[in-house]
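Structure tokens please, single chain.
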Amino acid sequence: MKIQCSCGAKYEIEVAPGMQPVQFVCANCGLDSSDFVNALIRKELDAPNPPVPAPPPPEPSPRRLRISTTRPASPAESPSPEAEQPESLFCARHQELAVERCVVCKKPICPKCMELFGCVCSPFCKARAVAQKTNVPIYAGQAFLAEARYWKKTGAIFAVVGLMLAGILGAWAWYAWFGSVPRVVFSIPFRNAAYAGGSYLANDQIVILHGGALARYDLKTGQKVWSRQLISAQAISDVAQRENAAAARESAMNPNENTPAELPSVVLQNARAALEGQFTLHASGHDVWTAAANVLTHYDWDTGRTLQKITLTNRYGEWVQQGDELQAIHAAASGAQTIARLDMAGGQLQTETVPGWTGQMPPASAGSPGGGASGGLPVSAGAPARPLNPQTVSRQAQHLTLPARLALPALLANSEHEQQLEQALNGGAPGVPQKPAAPPPSMGFTVIPDGANYVEFSSTLIKPHFVEQEAIQSAPEKSALDNPNLNSSDTSAVANQILNEMQRNSGGDKVVVDESIYQVAIGRFGETTPDWAGLVIGPPRLYPLATVNVLAAGGTITVFNKSNRKLWQAQLIYPVPAVDNGQSSTGAGPCAERDGILYVFDAAVLTAFDPAAGNVLWRLPSIGILGLFFDQGMVYVNTTTANLNNLKYSRQIDVTRKIRSVLLKVDPKTGRIVWTSQPRGAVCYVSGPFIYASYSFDPGDVTGPEAALMGRPFLRLVRIDPGNGHVLWEYTEGRAPVDMQFDGPTIRLIFKKQVEVLHYLVL
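Here you go.
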């Protein structure tokens, strides 16, 4: 019988029946495999284990001292291996109980061996099995198979994680580039151009007022539910005839003026625009109303038919919606004020007339500020000589076409020459500056909305005093036209010089400041006598707020409680802007109250006061503040990049000057600026994560040579991150809207010939 040790040494043993157990020790590695070899011999001979003779009983012997010595047991006396472990085999390599035999050499192998080599005991047997083409079963617990399963599982995990990461990155990329960017979800074209409009959104239903058309659409399907025409062709024709008659009368009264007659199509277009501009849309729930002149109309939500029409005797001012109620004020010639309140759901109209304080105050009609600069870029030959608005002029100049910018000095020189000729024909000396007109005094009796109530306010001019101030720099000593090397790069300098000279000749180089003395009275609504009366310097304006009423006159503010008792007075650096208080498209101001802080901004500083005591909490210098937004405990200041020089020389014209819009996020407790952003447009909406800024340009419906000069209209919408002020996205269109409305991630745009609804996803 041939035997191979686990170390590879080979032996040959002669086997004969009846042979005694052998002792086998490998001469190469010293491994004692006697039990294993004897078991193989017995298996080979198929003989039972030899009987072990019983030892003879010991002979009785006298008791004596015995000396025991240890001697090796003879083979006949040694116990049989099979008697110790009759059916068990041990692995020769690891001395552990075997669980299988090698398919090649039949050597017993333990789990450790099988983990290394499988169903063979060594690489040698594995090579023999390959050489002999022996079918070796695959052991599932073998190390390389376990490792393969491990790496297969690891690879599957990595693949799943990779797919998840790829899905997340793909979803993020889709959201960043597509999902979070506004897209058009609804669009309706119109045949006629509109110059006014509005919209109302409720439960995927949109009601649109586009010029003289009122309609309701389903946003999901894009289908029209109903539509109504609010202006008839006969009404447009009647207005056009009245306009033609008025123009004929004016031409007859001024025969020397050579005013060209407007084309019939232009007259009809202007008549349509005038009628459409009277309509405003108001809605609450399923109650839809339109207001036009002195007519209020209620429409059925489902069919659009007229449910109710209210014709008012008096012509009221702008109708303002307060919740489910419409409010408007009518000012009579006698000074009395009539307040109308309309319940939009029930259709009940209530009016209340306040006679005014004629016993305490001389009757006077309210005037509007005058003497302002409103003229734009005078590029046409027939442009009238009037003070120019520097912001309007620079804005229009920066949107001219390239040929128009190069030809701008020549166009301005021609316009200036025409103005001088007209001035000479009218009896004036060419080139002589006109004296600026003083603004009319601000005086009269009125009622001012104060939330759901009103405050009575009256002012009377006591002592007029108007002061002229220089608002433009002196003319340069050396004219830009004297440059012998004048080229196209000097176009802006030449245009600035001509425009500023036209500004001087029209009286726009000076501003008139009203420092008159006024008598002011303030009272609660419905009272026959005022609660407070006093004298102030400068045109007075009253701003009712949440807990106080603020009287601003010149650079002084006086604060009253809601009972019109004077609390305190403060002096500002500059006068408070003479604008109506409230939430406009650019924010609240110039006076606002929020969370126990009174905010007042003048031309250069935003000041935070304690409304009860008048203590200054903090001041923030900023020139050109447009308004304030309040959201999530923070103040957002809508301002500009203008400087003190722009403020001092407010009428100076520079066609290259770009005063950019700036948004400041301010901590209301300390006045600290959290971040600053320049979104290239004034902020018009702040609510939670949604901050929008918009900038648009519309040259108007210019015709003739001017149409080739002006640039194209456009709209730019920007969303700003409230966390850091960064721009999240920018949306542009090649046209300017006539109305914009924001509802979180939904934006409604009304253009002259189309209505669009934009929407995007928010995480």
